[in-house]
Structure formats: structure tokens, C-alpha cells
Amino acid sequence: MLKSRFASTIVKAQQDIDHSTITHNNVEAEAKIAKFRATEIAKANDLIKKQRQRDREAARPALSEMEKNVVIEDNFRTMKEFQMLIYGATFN
Question: Within a domain: residue 53?
């Protein structure tokens, strides 16, 4: 008699328990997914950093070779030489 009287209450309680375990499982699954995403992002960032480092190391010798072949003049010195040509050797 008590079972039949509180049957709806018992069913609701069982549904609440089932719902809370499902919710708990969903939270755990979402946490696992978030952790996985974070590790994948960290791996991707690490790969990007390594690639940049390799690119920089490859560019250094090329830049060094370029600097050897190209004469880089100071603009101030060039301007001063130009003014000496215009005004003569007495310009300071």
C-alpha cells in the first residue's frame, strides 16, 4: 500500500538520481575534452615555436652572407660627404 501511494515520489527520486549521474558524467566528459584540447593547443604552439626557431636559424647565415655582399652606409656620413662636395672642404 505504501509503495503504490508513494510510487510517483519514488519514480521522481530515481529520475533525479539518474539525471544527477548523467550530469556528473557529462561534466567529467567535458573536463576530459577540455584537458585534451588544452594539450593539443600546447603541442601545436610548441611545434610553431620550433618551426620559427628553425626558420630563424636558417635565415641567419643568409642574412650574414647578404651583409657581407652589401655595403650598408650610414646616412649621416653620406649627407656629410654630399655637403662637403657642395660647400667645399671647409664645411664642418
Answer: yes
pTM for the complete prediction?
A: 0.45
Place of cell 585534451: 36
Residues 59 and 66 sit within 8 Å (Cβ to Cβ): no
Of 25 and 38, the one with more pLDDT: 38
Q: Which domain holds residue 16?
A: 7-87
Per-residue H/E/C for the chain: CHHHHCHHHHHHHHHHHHHHHHHHHHHHHHHHHHHHHHHHHHHHHHHHHHHHHHHHHHHHHHHHHHHHHCCCCCHHHHHHHHHHHHHCCCCC
**Is residue 43 assigned to a domain?**
yes
> How many domains is the chain built from?
1
Question: For the chain, what's the residue count?
Answer: 92
